[in-house]
Specification:
2 helices; about 30% strand; binds succinic acid; binds fe (ii) ion
């Protein structure tokens, strides 16, 4: 059983890392969930594959915004402008997601991707950095919906020590500044801890700026 830190110790521990427990009330969580369902109706969830091995990721994904995050065996991690299966442009980032970005990002430009991660049953996400974006001055803003998850946060090298803490529905986390390239992942989702999502599970939304704004 990994050590689970209390929230209080976290915000001061690493510059640019900010956690807002319970920032989003039940009504905002429901409007985000409805917006996710709207995106999935036109951009169905898919399972990306690991570069080289082609191993299927346990987390199902979709996207909103100009760019969507994708990975397959041959070309690996990247952003693409069209859904890999329907070949349609991704739907626009819905207003409830945009509102969260503007309230916490502390960055002047709009996000260009809202990656939707769908965790069912035993889905998890290995320790990784978010480094496929050209603009590292923008933070990654993460929204948790549904079941609790055990989130792992490390440093900017794979070997740096990590700490784990719980993310609950309505929590918002910002990885910016020195923490922008921090390793992170999801060890497990605690099934049955939330009733927000019909059928259970967890949804994580990450808002990202992908390109560098013109003139910078
Ligand atoms: C991610 O790193 O893309 C997802 C993190 C999470 O599910 O909280
Ligand atoms: Fe990530």
């Amino acid at each position: 059983m990994p050590h689970v830190d209390s929230h209080a110790s976290l915000n001061t521990s690493q510059t640019g890392f900010r956690l807002f427990p319970g920032l989003l009330d039940a009504a905002r969580q429901r409007s985000l969930l409805e917006a996710v369902q709207g995106v999935l109706a036109t951009a169905p969830a898919y399972h990306a594959r690991m570069p080289k091995t082609g191993q299927r990721m346990s987390v199902a994904m979709s996207n909103a915004g100009r760019y969507g995050w994708y990975s397959d065996k041959d070309q690996g991690y990247r952003y693409i402008e069209r859904h890999p299966e329907t070949d349609r442009a991704w739907p626009a980032i819905p207003d409830p997601m945009m509102a969260v970005w503007w309230s916490v990002a502390d960055y002047d430009h709009a996000p260009e991707c809202c990656l939707i991660n769908l965790y069912r049953e035993t889905a998890k996400m290995g320790l990784h950095q978010d480094r496929d974006e050209a603009e590292m001055a923008a933070p990654v803003v993460s929204i948790s919906l549904g079941d609790d998850a055990l989130f792992r946060l490390g440093g900017t090298t794979r070997k740096a020590p990590t700490r784990s803490f719980k993310l609950a529905s309505g929590d918002v986390l910002v990885l910016g500044g020195a923490a922008r390239l921090a390793y992170h992942g999801i060890d497990r989702v605690m099934g049955g801890t939330s009733r927000l999502i019909p059928g259970g599970g967890r949804i994580n939304l990450t808002l990202r700026r992908v390109t560098r704004p013109i003139g910078r």
